[in-house]
Structures are given as C-alpha cells and as structure tokens.
Amino acid sequence: MANVFANKKTFKETFQTRVEQIYGIKFEESTPHQRYFTLGTLVREYISSNWIETNEAIVEGKHKQVYYFSMEFLMGRLLTNNIMNLGIRPVIEAGLKELDIELNELEKIEADAGLGNGGLGRLAACFMDSIASLGLPGHGNGLRYRYGFFEQKIIDGYQVEVPDKWLQRGYVWEVRKSNESVEVPFYGYVKVEKIDGREVYTHIPEEYVRAVPYDVPVVGDISNGNKTVDTLRLWSSEPTENEYPKNMSAVEYEKGVRNISEFLYPDDSTEEGKILRLKQQYFFVAAGVRWAVRQHKETFGTLDNFMDKNVLHINDTHPALIVPELMRILIDEEGYDWDSAWAITSKTCAYTNHTILAEALEKWPVRLFQPLLPRIYMITEEINRRYCLELLNRYADQPQKVAELAIIGHNQVRMAHLAIVGSFSINGVAQLHTDILTQIEMKDFNEMYPERFNNKTNGITHRRWLLHCNPELTALLDKEIGTGYHTNTFELAKFEEKINDPKVQEAIASMKHARKQALAERIYREQGVQLDPNSIFDIQVKRLHAYKRQLLNAMHIMYLYNRLKEDQEFKANFHPQSFIFGAKAASGYYFAKKVIKLINSIAEKVNNDPDTNQLLKVVFVENYNVTYAELIMPAADLSEQISTASKEASGTGNMKFMMNGAMTIGTMDGANVEIHELVGDENSFIFGLTADEVNNYYQNGGYNPWDLYNSDARIRRVLDQLVNGFLTPDTEEFRDIFNAVTHNGDEYFVLKDFDSYVRAQEKANQAYKNRQHWIEMSIRNISRSGKFSSDRTIQEYADQIWHVEPLKFKK
Ligand code: 26V
C-alpha cells in the first residue's frame, strides 16, 4: 500500500476521499468526529504493516517475550502519541491546515481510555510506551471495561460520579479478534480419574464465559530505525458458544457474563461484588495465559522451554492467579508432573508490589474462591501445602510463623503470598519502598528468598510527559542541547550547562508563563475561577486518599488565610499563591469525599474575600484525568508530594512535575527521596517525619494529637474552624475530619507534620520572589530528571528481571 503520509498532498487527498467513502457524504459536510475517526483509521492502517512485522520478528527470531498482566491500563488519548512516535505529525498538521482544520481540534475529540484509576494504571501505560520504544517484545494483557474510571462532577462542592462511556462512539484503535477467543470456565467440580497409574484431574465447569480479545497497537518511537508495534490485548466477556448453564435462565446468564468486563473495580462490599472481582481476575488471567501458551506452542511445539521464552509479569496482586493457572495447564492439559510444572511456573512469573497499605493486600475468602474456581483452588492448596512443609522445616520452633506466612490462612487466600511464592522476582517501585518491603513488610519472605527481591524505581514516558505535553520546553531544549535527549533522557544533564545564560533563563520563564496561562484559561472557562499566572502555581493532583494528605494542604491554606487576614507584615511579604487540586475519591470512600467538600468550601470562602483574593486562590479542578494532567504538569511551580513518609510507594506525578521544571515540596517518601538525592536541599523543599520516625511512632502506639491541639494556636484555630460554622453553616459537615485528626489519633500525622510543612511553604514562597534564583532551581530540576524516564526503568526490567532483547527487523 502506498504511504498515505509520504507527503501532505497524498495525505490530504486520501483523507478527503476516505471520509467520503466511509460516511457516504461530501467532505465539506463531515463532522469533526467523522474527521477524527477517519484520521485515526488511516493512522491505524499505517501502523499495521509494522505491527505484522513485529509479530513476525518475534516468531522468526524466537524471541523471549514479556506479558504484562494488569487490571489497569490508564492510556489516555493515543492519536497524538501515535503520530508523534511515528514521526508523521508534521505531514498531518500541514495537510489538515490546507483543509482549514486544526489537528489540535481533532485530537481533542478522542475520549481518554481511562481503564485505570491512578498510579499503577498510568505506570502500566508508560511502561507499554517504553517497551515498544526500546524495541522490546512485550504485550499488555488486561480487561476491556465497557465503562472506564468514573467521570467526576463537582456539584455544590461534592463529588458526583457519572459513568464514563468511553466506548460509546467506537474506539478507533482497537481490533476485535474473535477468532482468538477463549472459553473461560467457572464453578462446577473436579473429576479425578486414574489413567495409566496416574491421577488425572479435570475441571468440569458449570458455566463458560467467552473471552474475546481486542488488540490495541502500542506504537514505539521510530527513531533509530525501530519499527516495533507491540500489542495491548484487552479481553471482553461475552456469552459462550458452548451450552448455557442449566441452572439459570439465559437472560440471567448473559447479564452475569457481561458484568465481568463492565466496570473497573466494582463495589466489593457485598459477597456478590467480591465474587465478581475474583471472576474478573481469573477471567483476564486465564485468557492471557492461554494466549501466551498457544503462541509459545506454535513456535516451539513444547512447553519444556516456556520459562526461557516468556515472562508473565504480575502487576500488583490482582493477576496472581497466573501462578495456579499456569500450573493447571502444565499438569492437567500438558501432562507434566508437579515438580516439572513448578520448575517452569516459578521461573516464568515475576511480581511487582505497588503498595504497603494493608487494605490493598488482597485476600479472598475460601468459601467464595473454592466453588468459583474449584481446580485452581485445589492447586493453590497444594502449592500452599508444599510451601508450608518448607516453612515448617525452617521455623520448626515457631508454628505461628508458619501460619502467618502461609498462602491460605484464616480461611482466606492471600494473593500477595501466592505471588511471592510463585515468582522468581519480586520488586518494589522506589528504593525506600523496596527497603520497607525487605526490612519490614516482607522481611520473612526476604530472608527466605533474598535473591528474588529487587528494586526498580518507577519512571514516566518523557515522550508524553515532556515532548508532547510541553512543546515550548521541548523546543527550547532542542535548540540548546540538540535532540539526543529524545532517546536518552540522561542527556538532559547538558541543559544545566546553560543555567547562567540569561536568554535561557528568560525562555524558561516565558515557557512557564505560557503553560500557566494555558491552564488558567481552561480553569476559567470551565469553572469561572480566575488565576493570575504571576502567582505561584502550587499543585496537588493525585487520587484522594488520607495518606496522601490533601488535608494537610487544605489546613495550611486555612492557616495562611487566617494569617493574611491578621498579620500585615506577613501579608506585605507574601507572594501571591494559587493552590490547585485535582483528585477523584473512590465512590465509597467517605473521608476522601469529605476532603473534596472541604477544599471546595475553603475555595468558596477564600476566593470571595476581596481582602485576600489577590494573594490567595484555591481551585479544585473537575475530573482530573490523563489528558488534564498533560495540561497541568507543565504549569506547576510547586509540586505537592506530601504523603505520610513510608506510605507512598513511589509516586510518579512527582517525576512528571520535576521534568517540567517544578520544585518538589514533599516528605522523604517514595521516589521523593530519589528526587531529593538528585537536586539536594537547595532545589527542593523537604519537610516532615521520616519513614523511620513514622514507623517508630506506629510501633509505640502513635502519638497524642491533643498535645498539638493544645500547644499550637495555629492548629487549634484551623481545627476549630472546621466545626464552628466558619466554612459552612452546618457545623457537622466536617466533624468527622476533625475527629480523624484528634479523637481518632491522627493516623497519618497531619498535625505532627503541620509545623514543618508551614515552614517549608514559607521558604518556598519567599524563594519564589527571587525570580532568577527560582528559574535556576527549575533548570536544575529539569536537567537532573533524566533518571525518571520509564525508558530507564524498562531497560532495568529488561536487563535484570525479564532478560529480553530488542527485536531485529529485516530492513
Ligand atoms: C488496590 C485495590 C484494592 C481493592 C480496591 C481497588 C484497588 C485498586 C488498586 C489497588 C492497588 C493500588 C496500588 C497503587 O496504585 N499503587 C501506586 O502505584 C504507583 C505505581 O507504582 C506508585 O507510584 C504509587 O505510589 C502507588 O500508590
């Protein structure tokens, strides 16, 4: 096929013709959506030859492959990403211009693929981009949710959740491959037979659900001759083509089936909800493992070398059923004995832990697990039995240890333990997090299997989070240090040599101003709040969670407001500051929702006070998502990373902000520690308890927040204002927030860190007034951010865990 994107003329002509062919209307009458969809179609078709070549190269080169199993892929939009990585943006832009169409306008039509809810899902998306851009054979395996993470509306200061119908107008990037569908079995019983003296187990299911794959191409950066297009395979649940189960009506069955790929993290407060979650997990795991096994057998004809040619990566505990599922295939379907099957399985699986929060460590009640997945349960039990024998050997004198470390205990299956026992590699996502895993949370496991534990500090794709989202900075860097950093972000270090160049400083200042202006415009347009681009843009965007301490930020703003109202000298010295929040709260998370209401109530009060509103503004942006983040990251002066030390495994927003020249105000938590290591105290604002201090407090039963309430007048004042009608007439509205940090012990040390946070904020506010110095700090942050490209992270996974090599292409 001729190259549609060879030049603007061919592109323009093909584009017009295709719009008319697809929709049967004159080009002039086509809608923006039709034009967007046609452009997407042309790009997808253009991708397909490289997609085919990639798959051929994998097979012909007998390459080892990675399958990255994840419940979440927060991809955002793909048009911009794909045409940038393919290098065809200039042609498209020029061609469209002649038709009087702005490419930007078409790009905006694409719905975000929001198949995830936060850091873990966005990390998976950044990883896919890096895997393809490094030319590695790697695929994503996940669920094709009909509704993505909910759309957030703010009504009267409260969060309201609206379903995210991202598929409503069709998704141009996916290709349905019904011929590669898989039937996934549930319920029923296990038949045991003796065949040739050997016990053979067969799961006789009560129902099947059909898993239909939809493939999305993952386009790597084509510079350096790379042609890799990897696959993100998302499974959709449909009724089986086998017989329907006998014990229910067809309607009932079909509804149950569709439910599996309907929502991301359906409510699991009920028994039924828990079953649905577990069904989702087994569904995408079973389908994905079969995909890998089938591919492998086609190339090699045997599974003896499966571990040499495949890695099944377990992204957090959700896909941990990979372990018993692979065992089941090897034993029940392929006739391996237990030991051989275990040798293969435990050399194939690798697990990443993303959090130490207890509530995220999944446990499934046996009473639900066993009936739903009878054969998988049997195998899990046997894995546990053999592993417990090992434990008994090691801890002969400590039976309680055996019970603690077992995979099944208290009538629950502990998914993290299953993943640890079944994997050859277990990694944390930042050095501090890995240290906490090996020394505290998973200490005993680390003592048993020290060679398995390792760290892989997270990263972000600089293609989306710098090249695409910050064109002004990219142009400046290209001019000053060349484009080498596009493929090797460590070259950003060269930019620091320009730190004293007044022209460069000027350019950084104007870049920041332009990005702040752009964000301010959207906020004004959508929410009617006017922000001054000359004020400090102080931004906290991330999921709403108690440990992330949006509350600390909010309480500081209340303190600032009080102080500005009363202290004229302070007021005279204060540089105007705009506090911007963006966050979704889980729909059942009461406390988090209250904090949203609190921030909005503070905004209401502060923004409408003519006495201070030239100095202080607060805004909570509605529906923070990947696309919004692309506008927000480059617009920040201050990056709020203020989690209770030890709680944030890594954070990745911190890296996006840094790469775009914001200074971190943060605790020594997650990857902040590594940012601080790179830029020092002079170029960041670090405050608060350390992880060790926090853990010491926990071990000694916490601390008494009332001491601070009584001794610190600022704290008392702010807390009283939560419950005395200062913010809203309803004095009960924020009572539970008040209680959380007082009567209930202040689990996240909000009051404890308040004073040092205030001081860090003061320091930042004053530092900003020295514009030149601030810009120099900003340049240092950009220059030293090279480590945080996910290309670096993925290179480490490839070299140290996966042992995969880049593909070789014929031409
Ligand atoms: C767990 C659960 C438990 C059941 C309810 C729904 C749900 C959803 C997600 C999770 C796992 C969350 C883990 C997570 O997102 N961790 C984040 O991972 C980022 C990437 O490694 C890291 O930067 C963040 O610090 C970490 O919080």
Automatic annotation (TrEMBL):
The keyword Signal does not apply. Transmembrane segments: none annotated. GO terms for molecular function: 1,4-alpha-oligoglucan phosphorylase activity. Its EC number is 2.4.1.1. It catalyses: [(1->4)-alpha-D-glucosyl](n) + phosphate = [(1->4)-alpha-D-glucosyl](n-1) + alpha-D-glucose 1-phosphate. It holds the Pfam family Phosphorylase. The keyword DNA-binding does not apply. Belongs to the glycogen phosphorylase family. PANTHER family: GLYCOGEN PHOSPHORYLASE, GLYCOGEN PHOSPHORYLASE, LIVER FORM. This is Alpha-1,4 glucan phosphorylase.
